[in-house]
Amino acid sequence: MNYHDDDALDRALAALPLEEPPARLHDRIMAATVLRPAPLASGWEVWLVGTLVAVAAWCCWLLVSSPSIVTRVAAALSDALENAGLTSEYTLLWLAVGVSAAWWVSQLTVPASRKIRVR
Amino acid sequence: MAVAVAVEPPLAPPVDDDQALIAAALAGRSEAFGELVRRYERAVYNLAVRTLRDRTEAEDATQEAFFKAYRALGSFRPGAKFSTWIFTICYRGCCDRLAKRKRLSGDELPDRADPSAGPAVLAERSDEAQRLRAAIDALPDKYRAVITLYHLQGKQYEEIATVLNLPLGTVKTHLFRAKEQLRKVLTA
Question: Looking at the whole model, is its pTM more than 0.90?
Fold first, then answer.
């Protein structure tokens, strides 16, 4: 073939048949995309479950290694509550009042201002 | 006399344009994505073969391109051309592979040596198509990419520029030089 002019080269390029891909390629693509089985859990779920399992295992090990840990943890918790003042009835009462007031305010619907002009 | 003519209920129109196929694939119809793959796998494979000059790697690059497209199908811009999008994904993947290859083999070996590219081998080839393919393979990377896309997409210079992420003028210059080099090799 004569490739001396631009048109001849263009024609040759246009007539150049595409190479056939291997027969297995289509199946490979489909297997990697639509036919790929969905994962049982997403990444963050696996991490969450793994962390929970690790924490549970650590707690079990603590309980087994020193059986008195439960009483010690309970005592530490009650000390912390007492230090924070959460054992006093008045503190709990005022906390309850505060939470209910916050909830009540959050439920209020404020009417739109009448100053907004309708154009 | 009235003649009763049995009229068949109209069949659901075949999904023929890419946008509809993408919408169907997003709606969970796996056969729609299969049809997209069937339409473009050959062209994408050819782009990968010409860019990488290695059929096994081109097969992997094609699979990877469709995998990436499948995962990002939801972000496909309506109105855009699927061919341009999939070619862009494939070409970027091929560029990454070429860069990795360069890092592994050293700068003096930019591409995998292709035994089919030498002029002596070219002269022996009787098949015109093979001769032309070998001449394309012998082109430098940037010209090879432009001429391959010109072959795949025709004179859609804007699409070629989008895929290669090059200005339109550069694409035209590369194409002109690529053709010049091809002519030189083929008429030698």
Answer: no
Please state, in angstroms and rounded to a whole number, the distance separating the CA atoms of residues B88 and B94.
10
Question: Distance between the two ends of chain A, CA-based, in angstroms?
Answer: 74
Q: What is the pLDDT of residues B24-52, one digit of tens each?
A: 999 989 999 999 999 999 999 999 999 99
B62/A21 CB distance under 8 A: yes
Cβ within 8 Å of residue B3, ≥6 positions away: none
Respond yes or no on whether ipTM tops 0.85. Answer: no
The chain A residues in contact with chain B (CB within 8 A) are: 1, 3-4, 6, 9, 12-14, 16-22, 25-26, 28-30, 32-35
Domain boundaries, chain A: 20-65, 67-105
CB-CB contact of B43 with B63 (8 Å): no
What CA dihedral angle connects B126, B129, B131 and B137, to 10 degrees? -160
Give the alpha-carbon dihedral of A63, A66, A70, A71, to 10 degrees: 170
CA–CA gap between residue A3 and residue B184 (Å, rounded): 9
